[in-house]
## 1
Amino acid sequence: MIVVYGIKEKLNPIKEKLSDVIHGCMQSVLGMPEDKRAHRFLPLEREDFYYPGGRSDAYTVIEINMMAGRNSETQKALIKALFQELESQLSLAPIDVEITIKEQAPYQWGFRGITGDEANDLKYKVNV
């Protein structure tokens, strides 16, 4: 699951395209299938979103939650692909984007009535 935060006046107009860019990177780097898009957008009021100095109002935070298993080079490739594609397709400067990957053990995920370590029918690889 991916959660995206930003100031609502900047985030709302680009949500659809931003979702497309994020999912495209997830597909190309991680091999995620087309139907595995789980994005949550949290547009915030300006007074509810504090961010570091040197950033513009376009500052966007992307939290990627995934089952543990992807190696560090794969995760770094995903982050770099996101920076590149967000800048080229949405003109979001890398200084205005923060990306974090949060990993949880498969047994800590629950979906379709089972835990992630019980799922044997995933259409994508976790260990890449």
Note: Strands lie at 2-7, 39-44, 60-67, 97-104, 110-111, 114-115.
## 2
Amino acid sequence: MARPVGGRLLAMIPIVIAALLGVAFYWGLWNKDDRLPSTLIGRPAPVFALPPIEGRNDGLSSEDLRGEVSIVNVWASWCVPCRVEMPLLVELAGTGTVPIHGINYKDAPDAAVGFLSELGDPYTRIGADRNGRVSIDWGVYGLPETFVIDRKGRIAYKHVGPFDRRALEEEILPVVRRLQAEDGS
């Protein structure tokens, strides 16, 4: 007995779905653009006010991110990749090109202070995000993460993971310079 035409079409559905999934996985594996999109790009930074880490007099709030182009770096002393990028942050801070602010994520106060004492402190201001709530509002899901903020306090760029010299010079600083030129900084 021959199968009805509708039965053959129904039997093909799993094959078509498997083929589409295969194409999607193949594209995902070989796609050369490894940047992760952020829904916050172009939007104001989340409203927040964080206290300072121990030993510092200045916390960090969303109000501190208005009036000049700046960088916000989310870090922790227990984060190994944060150690990798810290020398570049310290070097960048030394140039005075752009203020760098830090959000210290779920860190013990003495560990954060020790980390900065050991590796250098590039931050103009640091806020202690002890429970991680503010970092979640920023869309942080892995450390470190670095954001470029425009003069109006909007997120213009997001870099996930530690950045190297190439990423700093070819991705992050061009955004900073463009915003500074647009804003007349």
Note: The longest strand covers residues 70-75.
## 3
Amino acid sequence: MRGFIEKVEKNEHLHYEEMVEASRLMFNEATELQQIANFLIALSKKGETTNEIAALATVMKSFALKLNEPVGSYMDNCGTGGDGLNSFNISTTSAFVLAGAGATIVKHGNRKISSAAGSSDVLEALGIDSSIDIGSSMDLLAREGLTFLYAPNVHPRLKRIGLVRKQIGKPTIFNLIGPLTNPVALKSQYTGINRPNFTIEYATVLQMLGRERAIVVCGAEGMDEASLAGKSEFVLVDKGDLIPFTLTPEDVGLTYAPISAIQGGDAQENATIMRTVLQGNRSAYFDSVIFNAGVGFFANGMVSNIPEGVKLATDSILSGKALEKLEAVITYSNESRKKEVV
């Protein structure tokens, strides 16, 4: 590992094969945690490349548990996090909106690493058990067309890496690969990053990993979601093509709102915001969700344009279907917990 650290510290990029080897060393129990930390910090300072990201994602996915998911056409809408803007859990809320309108969602997520409340934190605040066993998680997917995969449950070798990431306390390449390492084979994907000048590169990684259709977004102020606070940069991956485009909230029939209008708090506060949105209360929180879910529907191929997607997202909430999906997942989680006790 020392040789790779030294090369990266010299501002030299690793070739794909080199990064595969370095990645395997990171997941090796014999590798010292401090060496892993030094490597991650050096990569972050240098700036990660498409080859480095794709190689690490491929190695990490190869070590993931085999889930034996039911046959289906699956989508993930998790973002990289790490934008430091303290927004509420937009993509987690959007997952219920997407599923409420018929998209089949397998959302990959984690606890907070560099944010106030991660996806798994807010789900637990809602009463959804993140420690649900894999069999039950796949049963939930078959029943409801929606499930949440807690990354440490499906990536057992992440435990030591998690300790290092908490020690570093800042975004690393592992933030970038979170959305790329869902163990389920995804047909489509909608993901956000906090690097406005990296959307094409990230879309290229998705292409390298075999996504048929996907959208990458970086919102105003580096938000890892489509933003109401200005212009968002997107790249559509469609059958091998990479198509950049931009959108403002006004372009999809929504109104401007500053980042401060969608800020969240701890897991319990964010759970309350999520419920308020899914109950149909109009606000900047609501508009952020329908904007992002609308892009998600377009990435999934369920609509022909994003304004249509925003309308479908609005209907999913106002019809009560998105909230019904939340309640169904909570009920299933409670029943699973009772079975475990018995």
Note: The first helix runs from residue 2 to 9.
## 4
Amino acid sequence: MTPGHPAEPFWYALTDQHRAELREMGTRNDYRPETVVIREGERTDFAFVVMDGCVKVSATGRHGYQTILGLRDAGELVGELAGLDGGRRSATVSALSPVEGLLLPADRFGPFLRRNPGAAAILHRTVSMRLREADRYRSAAGSEAVLQRFAALLLHLAKRYGLQVDGGGVLIDLPLSQEDLAGLILTSKRTLGRILESWRADDIIVTGRRTMLLHSVDALRTIARNNA
């Protein structure tokens, strides 16, 4: 499943006073789906709080392979490292759904953290938890079968973004492409396509253009559990 989801997102872990200060210093913006908020390699000096919606964090390797580093939801902070230290962006952040965001300029966010050690501790905890979850993610990629990883991913997405539909199925309400899904489980688009074809034939899933309907959640649980 995707790495990088602290138990309590950064924004919601802050005090009311912290949030009021950040709203005062920040700029609210709305983003349409597929809009790039932060681009890999750029030098920009802000951090970004997802106030509503979902963004995708991705990075491109030397051979053009896209790795999805995580999906971030309402309350989560992204771009905090380059936004504070002035380095180049290590990943691209783009809107998956309509997104409302709060841009926090580094020249004000940095002093805010120095004035508020409690908020700085929350940021440190957020970064540490993401690093630990990324380590577990890479470990799973090396030890679990692709089928198991994909089944676990779909169950995870269904739990967080799923909508119950008539007949007992679950619709994953995120416009993820096959490339996105392949990147999330560190496999090739061709391998993912073969799995999707097999699962469609077995009536486990139904796919559309960037839509995924899970017909048999129980079958996916069995695959994820059995390392099939």
Note: Confidence is low (pLDDT under 50) at residues 1-6.
